[in-house]
Amino acid sequence: MPRREPKLYLSFDDGPHPEHTPPLLELLRLHGAKATFFLVGSQVEKYPQIVQQIVDEGHAIGNHSMTHPRLPQLSARDQLADIARADAVMARFNGRRRQMFRPPNGRATVTTIVNSVVKRQPLVLWSIDSMDYQLDAEQVAARLEKLTVRGGDIVLFHDDGGAALGALSRLLPRWSGSGLRFAPL
Predict the structure, then answer these.
(1) What is the pLDDT of residue 167?
(2) What is the pLDDT of residue 64?
(3) Which residue in the list 13, 14, 87, 132 is annotated as catalytic?
(4) Which pLDDT score is estimated for 5?
(5) Count of domains in the chain?
């Protein structure tokens, strides 16, 4: 992403989650922040109302697979089928036949890379990992405060746990105060 602009790209994987995603959306709304949610298709089917809220509030959605498999352990055919199923489920919400794709655990395979090029389906990773899947909210905030977060960075969070919400409650005002703005990918 362009580094000249003061835009920070917050991204959230593994949702939607009924307990954690709505409060996260409220926090983003309070700070005028937009983000990108890389959703798991099976979760989208369970919680379509949360997905609709994400889209209605101006956030972007992306494909994080249908079942969150370990892609390298699947055949090429099964990888592509999983991605296609999730694309179809998410198309109902934004009308796009192909969604941005973020592979589970950030593990792109030859199949997903070739698919990205052939189908012109953006494959999106991140430049900063919050580690919110291993650390509590205070540790995440402290870790990210020590890093140099700049415009153009894509920060990975997860909305299937509470650490992102707690950390961002502290970080959003700080980042906004430094001139960063929050945009969807």
Answers:
(1) 98
(2) 98
(3) 13
(4) 75
(5) 1
pLDDT score recorded for residue 154: 98
Residue 2 lies in a domain: no
Question: Could you count the other beta carbons within 10 Å of the beta carbon of residue 30?
Answer: 11
pLDDT along the chain (185 residues), means of 10: 80 98 98 98 98 98 98 97 97 94 97 95 97 98 96 97 97 96 98
Q: Is residue 34 included in any domain, yes or no?
A: yes
Residue 32, burial from CB neighbour count under 10 angstroms (0-12, 13-18, 19+):
exposed
Max CA pair span of the chain: 47
Give the whole-angstrom CA distance, residue 116 versus residue 120.
Answer: 5
Give the per-residue pLDDT at 3.
58
Angle value at C-alpha 3, between 34 and 171, nearest 5 degrees: 45
Q: Is residue 13 annotated as part of the catalytic site, yes or no?
A: yes
Amino acid at site 154: I
The whole-number pLDDT of residue 2 equals: 56
Query: Is 1 a member of any domain?
Result: no
Does residue 138 sit within a domain?
Answer: yes
**Given the residues 17, 20, 64, 158, the one annotated as active site:** 158
Burial-class residue 177 by CB neighbours within 10 Å (0-12, 13-18, 19+). exposed
Could you give the count of Cα atoms lying within 13 Å of 95 in the half-sphere of its Cβ?
0
- Is 160 an annotated catalytic residue? no
Q: What is the CATH number of the domain that holds 46?
A: 3.20.20.370
**Domain assignment of residue 63, given as a range:** 7-182
